[in-house]
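[scheduler] slot 2 assigned
[scheduler] job type: sequence-to-structure, two independent chains
[scheduler] chain ordering preserved from manifest
[runner] begin chain α
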Amino acid sequence: MDADEVREAFLGFWRQRGHAPVARAPLVLWGDPSTLFTGSGMQGLLPYLLGAEHPAGHRLVNSQPCLRAQDIDDVGDSRHTTFFEMLGNWSLGDYFKAEQLPAVWEFFTGTVGLDPARIYVSCFGGDPGHGIPRDDESARIWRELFTAAGLDAAEVDLSTEQRAAEIGSGGARIAFYGEKNWWSRGDSIDATPVGDPGGPDSEVFYLYPDVPHDPAFGARCHPNCDCGRYLEIGNSVFLEYLRTPDGFAPLPRRNVDFGGGLERIAAAAIDSPDVYRISLLRPIVDRLAELSGTGYEQRRYGLRVVADHLRGAAFLVADGVRPANKEQGYVLRRLIRRAVRVAHSIGLTEDFLAEVVPTVTELYRDSYPEVAANAGTTVAVLAGEEQRFRRTLARGLRQLESYRLLTGDDLFTLYDSAGFPVELSTEEARARGIELSPDWRAEFDARMAEQRARSQAARRH
């Protein structure tokens, strides 16, 4: 299965089970100031998860383009992207764990054809302090599914990711974690806002046995380890609790919220631990490699970063974002400029975006026709930003070459005189082995604050 086939198979799988397809939300929820971008499939459905009636009914399915700018520094390995599609199905007060988990198993092992022996899962280990029990029901369902497939269903209680990295999972099929397997809009169980739903979740991982564990991520491996040996491909959230001023109470209407990354599922479908080899990313990588005269194995990091950033930028432009110095426009500008800077390091030293953007937009002609329909605008916006930034890049790189140690004052000078963004200065410094002073961030922020104060004073006069 290629990525488009996985998407269509997922939508069809749940439509056959009475789920109504819902249109994707834009990457920017323009009326929602609480977030810059749509970062999950459920984000646009939050009112219905909180109890409102959805016009399409109680069973929903869609594929939602998402962007998580907070992952930008992780892009370059085999599995992280800033832009991705989230496949989602929802039950709004209808079915629950007993129906959801077997269906997820059927989709992954039957429809997609993944090897059951390489599937591992995690469940919520409970929180006695809040009176929330361990999710033994989900574990029991998984145990029955594994046993029916002739697989051992050993369990291990790992509690925290830190403890898991110390002791490892020992190959157990079902792993219990604490807050890692709890979902709410807060950062922790304690931070769940009063009046909000929350609940345990159960993640599904696919094992790549030929990928060795990287001890940089801990002494021992476990399903939630970020070394790449296990890849999360789906997560069923069971919203069954309501935060009250006194703690947690049962939620009157229990919901299911499933999210699965299309790129990761598509990678598992072709038995690749590298998401950049799937049909929605490999053509972009190949076009970049062709233009740069390099090969993927030699320049994997750079080709991955540029491919990811261009894909995300193309969707942002199609959804109405334009380069700017704040909010969504700043993230778009950063994606474009970071792509250009990294492209420069792999030999693309001349303007290239106009040559590659059509490859990106053509990939989505059938699934998201609005992206292809805006191809001309996207080329113009991205190519124009590239041309402006290349002049900045040339000045900044010339100045950067004179440093062996960069302080916050130096970084401010590069920003103020050469227009070189601090993120790009620090990335380029690390790439060139230029040392950064320990207090560079505080020094830079202080100089920026001084500049803002001068500007405000000048406006008053």
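[runner] end chain α
[runner] begin chain β
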Amino acid sequence: MCKVFISYSQDSFEHKSAVKGLADQLRAAQIECDLDQDEEFPEEGWPTWMMRKIRGSRFVLVVCSEGYWAKFHHESPSGKGVKWEGSIITQELYEAEARNQKFIPVLFSEADARFIPIPLRPYTYYVVTQVNDYEALVNRLSGRATGSRPRHNHSRLKASTGQRPDSSISSPAGPGNVQFNSGDGNVQVGNLSGSLSIQATQRPVIKFSLPRGTIGDNDLLKNRISELFNKVGEEREKRFGKTAYSVMYRNFKRDFGIESQPWTIIWQWPEATAQAIIKYLSEKYANTIAGREGRAGKKGGELPKRPQLYKEEKGLLEQIGIEISSPEVKEALSKYFGVDSHTKLTQYQHWLCVCRLEREVREAVGEQDSEQVDGHGS
């Protein structure tokens, strides 16, 4: 099997999970991947381990993100792992006089192309959340590459997985495609990953179970995405009414290039695509909160009642181990609002307090998670 090492920055728990999903997906395609998440205590130490893996791998996938760029170019005080790996990558390219067949930039979003490190910018990159690019990457790693630049578009898997075909339905040859002919009761099946069963009725009924390595096969990712959908939908429904959900799904399908398909097609996408979806929904949710806060300040709009605000504040403070009656809270009230107790806050001020606290708690929890999982300073 082809041996691959993945170099990345542990920007967040979601980003780290996406990288792990990419590694697992490649392994399912019979590509051997080395990842620091699978190594707890390297006997030779992290610097030697990283150098050995980079030098001993046929390919090195460089997952480009804002965090990776900052650490690679020494613009961040943290990230010794990325800085060390970046120096090895730069040195190997220098010694090879910039002839490169080994180091491959990969992205979770086309927008991250601006974060490709300068030494890697002349070379082909792959957006692994786009099916065409992901398949092109697998072909290259497996030695089946055609040498052509992958197309960057939003085309998705075209296999029919839940409909009853008429007299003849066919799709182009290639991975994930199926051809059906119902004439005389015959059914021809082309290449398709995953489990497929066909019941021979007058019109064939096709049952497709999701293959391993897809979002739908990972309950954790599927539940996380569903949870974010619900959170965004609930917040939007409070402002725009019951039509908010249909508008949200329509916008999602447009932004991910699947207008002609049900949004649940995402459960068939590789696990590596989950990061882009989670990031998209998280930004939508954050913008929704910001929008509510802005409208409340400008128009004095509808605000949560005081008991609900107290409940939310108490729950947020508990996440970081602080009592609502603690001196720290009183100090914050005095600093930001010039009062020494909640009773002296207006309802609008209390709402702002909870909104700001929610953001600070989210950032604090995220930083703690990042420190806990950052095994070697990446």
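[runner] end chain β
[qc] chain β: Residues 213-288 form one domain.
[scheduler] slot 2 released
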